[in-house]
Amino acid sequence: MSEKIIKIKDEFIQEALDYARLSKNHLSNQHSFHKGSLDDKEHKMFQGKLGEKVFKQYMIDNNMDFIEDESHYTKADEYDFCIFKYLIDVKTRTKEYHTRTLEMVKQFKIKPKDIYVSVKLNMVNFEGYIIGWFGKKDITRINRIENNGYLDNYVLYDKELRDIDTLKSSIRKKQEKYGLH
Fold this sequence. Notes:
single chain, 6-stranded mixed beta sheet
């Protein structure tokens, strides 16, 4: 899988920071299995939003038409991005030992996304790369659930993720088919 480093633009960093600061009082404890202070929640939200910005820059760089979620900071989002009718959720990793992508079973059953994109984020340099992607059918096909002391999560390991270029190729074909680019 490619590890093309994507630098996060200053304006995207500021957008992520602003959103994290505004939303920290409204975050659900259910989605935060990290330390419980408001500052910790803000930091985790900031990291997640930066991961989304890595994927946003990838889409911009590759001329992919998309809609970015604009949910109010007091509401849970329905998706991170939408391409055609496909809802996309970006999963952000920040540690070297993170080798799997998780999706909460409860969330998947209530609000499944069509596509999940896994991003590795470098917080020191404000950059990252896309590890790979998978679809909701991959989750149900693999059907691996793990619980490491918090909640049940569907788990996909890096070797099970698809190369991001396969998603780009599929989107380009649809754009051509519908005359969008």
